[in-house]
Amino acid sequence: MPHPIIRRIIGRVRHAGNSLRFFAGYFVIWLRKVGFLFLFKKYKNKMIKRFQNLFRDQKQQRLFLLLCLATLFNFVLVGYRLHYMAFDFSKIQSFRDLLDHRGYATFLFLIWNLFLAWVPYFIALIMDRTYEKTKSKGLLGFLFVAWLLFFPNAPYILTDLLHLKSRHPIPHWYDLMMIVSFAWTGLMLGYLSLFEVQRFLTKKFSARLGMGIAVGSILLCSFGIYLGRFLRWNTWDVLFRPHLLIGDIFEVVFNPFAYTGTLGIAVILACFLLIGYFILNTLISDS
């Protein structure tokens, strides 16, 4: 056993070392904050200008920010639901864990579906600017096909209402409003991306072509939602399993009466989306 005086000296040295590390760490954090604030003040106007240049006008920018707000609100709804059901957040350590726990009990799959709904909107936003810079019809065609493939993911969230049922201890009305909120955000993302594409086609070609492509895209979108909901195909299968996907499409097209129990959703969705499109299109035209 060391002498009590030696133990006391060792204790004071350790205490001084811990204090030094604490203040050194605090000083480093303070320097980082000061450096961040300095850089933010220095480049704030430049960053804001670059952000504004991403959009055609202030209206497009405001719509983007409102969609971001709606998305954040949806995330809060899911987060509060998980907190209410005492979900162990320590289980989520990676993106793979998030995929493993995205089942109907947690409703985390809604976040993934909403992410996919943002993809066609982003593609539609960059389509005009990309074509103006490159003048490449090949790149334009690639962007349009990519947009068309991802477009059904936006209104697809409407069909997630099929998962609605009582799940103790979550109130039934809470799950209803949460799914409706996600579905509404996805639907707005879809419509706004559609109007961006229609506007671009109208400007570059003709109004008749823009309208025709918009209506045709809605019809294809409704059929795509049917393929995703009931035949369980997704956008990635176009790349990884195209032969099987095409086989199922031909089977449904040439033998539709074998799928009357589920194929009707494509017809109803097409009518629903078309009516909503014409209503919004009329409002936009009037404004």
Write a compact overview of the structure shown.
Helices cover 79% and strands 0% of the residues. It is mainly alpha-helical and 287 residues long. 19% of the residues are buried.
Written overview of the protein:
The protein is mainly α and 287 residues long. The protein folds into two domains: 1-53; 57-286, no CATH class. The chain has eleven helices and no strands. The protein has helices at residues 4-53, 58-84, 95-100, 109-134, 137-150, 153-156, 172-204, 207-229, 237-240, 242-254, 260-286. The radius of gyration is 26 Å and the shape is globular.
Decide which structural class fits the backbone: mainly alpha
Shape: globular
How many angstroms separate the termini? 88 Å
Please state roughly what percent of the residues sit in beta strands, choosing from under 5%, 5-15%, 15-25%, 25-35%, 35-45% or over 45%. under 5%
Low-confidence stretches: 15-20
Please give the domain count. 2
| Overall average residue pLDDT | 83
Output the radius of gyration: 26 Å
The counted number of beta strands is 0
Number of helices: 11
